[in-house]
Amino acid sequence: IIRVDNQKAQSMAHGGNHQGFLASVSEFEFSNISELKKLNFIAVLYGISDVGNIGAIARSAYALGCEGLVIVTKSVNMQGVLRSSSGAAYEIPIAIFEDGLSLLNELKQCGFRLYATASNGKNIKEMKFAGKRALVMGSEGEGIPQKALA
Question: How far is residue 121's CA from residue 112's CA, in Å, rounded to a whole number?
Answer without folding.
Answer: 19
